[in-house]
User: Fold these one by one.
Assistant:
Number 1:
Amino acid sequence: MKVPAVKGTRDFYPPLMARRNYLVDGWKAAANRNGFEEYDGPILEYLKMYQIKSGDEIVDQLFSLQDRGGRDLAIRPEITPTLARMVNQQINALPRPIKWFSVPRLCRAERPQKGRLREFFQWNIDVIGAEDLLADAEVICCALDYLQSTGLTADDVVVRISSRRMLAEMLKAIGVAEDQLESLYPLLDKKGRMAPDAFEAALGDLVPAADPMNKILDLMKAERLEQVSEGVTMTGPAQASVEELSSLFDLLDRMGVADFCRFDISIVRGLAYYTGVVFEIYDRDCELRALGGGGRYDNLLKQFGGPQVTATGLGMGDCVLAILLEEKGLLAGRVPTRSLDYYVACVDKRYFPQAVEIVARLRRAGRRANLSYRQTGLGKQLKQASEQNATEVVIVGAEIESQRVAVKALASGEQRVVAVDQFFAGLQA
RNA sequence: GUGAAAGUAGCUCAGUUGGUUAGAGCACUGGUUUGUGGUACCAGGGGUCGGGGGUUCGAAUCCCCUCUUUCACCCCA
């Protein structure tokens, strides 16, 4: 009976596994370059951990199960709650700022579509315990460091940046009541995906009075940070919040990534827990969904029973990223393929024991080496050596009777006969 | 959760108004080549035509259900 792979999951055959490792290794290298340390947590968590942050609706969007002890568990759909739990447990012992990263395997029970599967990998980097804007800038820079390492440029990707704090202060300055803010965020977040008149109608439902509503529409039209305050009576906090975002852009400029970054007031993020800088990374042509996103979340640790500790971070999934890199031709030739230092070919089965000895010695010397299990013609073995991307072939033939082998370099075709001991002595160098 | 399209060899796909034993290219295995690779030529293996049910003398082909894939919506941590 044939059993198919589960909906929305992938089988990582060697070529796909090589691609996955290429992405994950790049993420880890970039995080390490930027001073982040790796952590991981369990793939199973208590279901209620996700209900704390996102409410009950989340339950039908994740994979949950009951263990034999009757505990309600979930396969992690994100790692931030795990991070909050882990940090909270050791909050007083950890030196700050805490700069941690992880590449968790996550599952979400959604309908698969382009750039979204049910099982995927997500790079997460977070800075905890640093209120400084430099932390937000570093998170963005680290993501851009990675993206540039793949060959992407400012012509390919853009980071759209705004601030929850600024949006809140501006809305208040316009005359929106504080308790209305939370209900406005999801709608403002959706503005770009809605028809303009549908957006205005929905906004009218939330903010019936014409005065604040029209000012909200004007505010959301701002294309540059300087335009945000036009026609608004600025309060002190509102002014400060604009200046804060402005100094973030100064920092990003100083860090050499200004070309990638753009103010975009429509970046709100649907989630309630963001408190400051928010950003999303897109392909320039805007044909794909977001490559990643993040921002500042100052209350999350407290929600998970810890102290009020400031935090900022980002998540980037592997699905959209792989699609973009593929489209830009940045995978072919960059994803490493199987390769060998030596392929040991055996000319006659009489010499096979010596060939086995040689391949084992090569491996003990730290070289990647392979040989054919089956005695076939030398031509066939050379073909296999080529297919396995061997640099050199050690040919074990009649010369072995006088302790010598032929060594052939596949790229040039050059071949020399050398004493076995001399050959291995040469490997030390 | 809603809607649309698709599913034939490992992959990409042909397959006539329903008609004999379902094909091609690539890939794979072997050979031409018993001590020299990438090319070429020859041969071979591999299919319950996604699965189940129905209509029919006869189904890859028509109908229903189901699974999977793709795309869009909802949602997007």
Number 2:
Amino acid sequence: MEGPHPGPAPPSPPAPAVAATLQDVARLAGVSAKTVARALNGEPNVRDATRERVARAAAALRFRPNRLARELRQGARTGAVGLVIGGLENPFYSHLAAGVERALRAEDLELVIASTDDDPERERAVVQTMLERRVRALLVVPVAEDHRYLEGERSAGTPLVFVDRPPTGLAADVVLWDNRTGVRQAVDALVAAGHRRIAVIADRIANFTARERLAAFREAARAHGLGLEPRLLVVDVHDVPAARATALRLLAAPEPPTAFFGLNNRITVGVVAALLTTGGAQAVVGFDDFDLAEALGTTVVANDPAAMGGRAGRLALARLAAGPGLPEQVLLPATLVRRGSGERGPAAAAPSRAAAALA
Amino acid sequence: MEGPHPGPAPPSPPAPAVAATLQDVARLAGVSAKTVARALNGEPNVRDATRERVARAAAALRFRPNRLARELRQGARTGAVGLVIGGLENPFYSHLAAGVERALRAEDLELVIASTDDDPERERAVVQTMLERRVRALLVVPVAEDHRYLEGERSAGTPLVFVDRPPTGLAADVVLWDNRTGVRQAVDALVAAGHRRIAVIADRIANFTARERLAAFREAARAHGLGLEPRLLVVDVHDVPAARATALRLLAAPEPPTAFFGLNNRITVGVVAALLTTGGAQAVVGFDDFDLAEALGTTVVANDPAAMGGRAGRLALARLAAGPGLPEQVLLPATLVRRGSGERGPAAAAPSRAAAALA
DNA sequence: CTGAAAGCGCTTACAG
DNA sequence: CTGAAAGCGCTTACAG
């Protein structure tokens, strides 16, 4: 923008072996440290000439302020927010993280991410490390079964937001899906389309999400007078290959299901993969959206992980700005959406287009 | 593990309004700060009785050491590594980040992530912030067109690793795909299957990756004596909907392509979506793997972003341990893989199974 | 085995 | 408009 575009690389000033400090700049500019701080931080009460001299000295030394030092002085809190998730391989979590990151940009806060791999021990370890780093706020998709270990932190005022699943034994902010409504709509649609033998596949049942969605399914099924065949309820299915294998097994058994309900995106993708392979004409409904849902005509409960992350991030920022208050529970919509061109009947009933074609 | 499992929540000790410091612990334990540090950090030369007294005092005060202070004293560098990527919504980047995170665990380093949205200005801004935070090492998927702004940092010894694309105007470590081999294999397979009218869709052409892959395609096409129809080479296609729209447009034109080559995962998914919608029988080959590639029988150049992230992370750790050396260029394999059951002929030639069925 | 003093690189709270 | 002193919460480098 300013200055001529450099032709051949200008002879770079001899790089200091070690980073220059504000004191170095002060010495070179012939002023005090305080004046350097004023000049560089855009504070008032600096003569233009002084300001310029400082700027030149800083540039010559390639001065880069040390945020650790600044933040230590300003209250021993870092300018980063911590996010603890299951793992970035799962698009649910990565989209969630993307939403959080975007929310933090508004306040120029950084994002520290750690994965738990759904291991409660790791959750405690990474949370501990983040708290030692004094993150400004902490967002957690919890896996531990007891969060009383965070009570001290909560009462100390660190904004603590739980995401996707509530904490146990701790009153804190939490952002959740309206799982019950999503599940009920899915079951309603399947039943309306005539399905009675619905296979339900869930993730690790130790987690709140799987339990709540499964409970909601049981309730909805009961309401519709469906018998619950235990063999059609499979839990602890955590990744795409496992879900695919589960679906294949169910399809190969006598009296296979006429429909599948995948309780998260990894599971639904696995089920779809199985149906594409076998050419089965079973209906599929999935919780969470996924890449090819629309093209494959798969009906999904279309929650939006990025929106959830954004909501959680903004909640943390609000706490930061306004101080703690009564813990809040935010319920985000998760409603059934028919993906695809819509030229066919009720999605839940219609076999996915590709699967039908393959039959 | 130790102590009885708590029944009703034990009366929690009155939480301190503000975090306890090491000095507070020292006062309560009746020892000096140095002794507290020794006891809590597991250093030798502390009597067992003292160690225990300190531990009790720390527990009573819920003492949590402040890493900012520790790290400031220990050289003003944080225990985190910075990762700058395009955006977490893209599975390529999120898998890359997952690989980096896993590599860092070995050294108990944390991970700070920032997205550029492929904006050079943002790259500079987030890199600047990370350097001010004094990250131990910096991993960057670059978008800027000039990286001389990092020369000072490089010569100061901060491990700097570029990922997926090389830096410009700066000698630094870089981890890349063997794009040429991957592209050549893809074109070879398509030509061997009889394709002459191959549509190629690329991401933002300002980026190295798109340029290199497109150049490799041109070269391979020339080697096979294929004419290059400009209308079949589409660039600056950045997301799934755009890729889908592009494919639909090409299919609707006179003399549509008989095959598509998607130069990254977002594009390939969009092309597959288009073919699933239209029922087209065109062949598809994609750069980068994607979720349903196997089930859909799509042939892909199967690179592994998590492996790339892991390699880049380990390279940074090695620099950290051994100090700088000559910049290294790591070329990771990216080779054609036939996804799917393999019961059909050369993948590249065969229309994807679902697409065929839909025809 | 233990402690007093100094310092990491900034900002705060004053004083002029 | 400018600066000297103290301090954030730890660890380093000594001394005993």
